[in-house]
User: What shape does this take?
Amino acid sequence: MRTAIADRGRAGCAPIDMRPADVADRSDAPSGPPLVLKFDAPEMVFGLDSLAEAGFSAARLGARRPFVVTDPGIIEAGWVAELVGRLYSADLEPIVWHGVTPNPKDYEIARAYEHYLCSGADVIIGLGGGSCLDAAKGIAILAGNEGAILDYLGVDQITRPIPPLLMIPSTAGTGSDVSQFCVVTDTANAVKATIMGRAVVPDISLTDPRLLTTMPHEVAAATGVDALTHAIESYVSLGNNPLTDGHALSAARRASWRHGVTAADGAGEPRGRTGVLQRRPGCHARDEPPGRRPARRAARRS
Assistant: This one.
């Protein structure tokens, strides 16, 4: 009996002669572009007063001494003080670095990285516009991989894990809080350089529309154009798919009408900013111009 079982086991493990030609010769294989789709996105926390969740969100990422990356304008607006208070309330000991300038420079990220190491920080929190968020990503890249930030230009050049990232945007246009891009300025060549890869997709994006109320009108207008441009780029991209198309069309619809109204009239009104920020992946509620909403719509989301 044992011999028979052993014989059957050996027979089942016999090698199969599967030549490459046998695998490649598939006349019934579908033609056209590949059907494998990929969509990377962080956990998203969205809503008025959601900044109150910052301490809890950072703690869930394992923070003890979170490293807050911001700029003087966000400090002046009072958002850093509120964030730091929330972090202390969660028994965390935040470190604040505010040396970011527009279009973060390679040497600024290097200095911030040294400060991060000396402070014994862990989780990295970006608070501000796209420059602050990209700087936070750059610091995280160096914290996990060392070297110089320009060593990682291109696609998937980051080979080792980076510290957890919590992003809190204060503008509506960049999308850095949910994207796999990090843009830094190569000061030697005076060009903006891009780092791309799944490694720099943040762990959590926390979006509180109140933060948009302190944006100057010209910045609000510029970020709206930025958001519309991103939506168009996504829709016409060769890498588009049905999932991204839905987000792109929804974002373009909101940016084309709501942003203009909000930039002009709703600068200090938090609820007016909510619709502006909803042109982001994961915020699916339909938001159409007055007079164009159907009388009834089945339970459908764009």
Observations:
- Residues 278-302 have pLDDT under 50 and may be disordered.
- The first helix runs from residue 2 to 12.
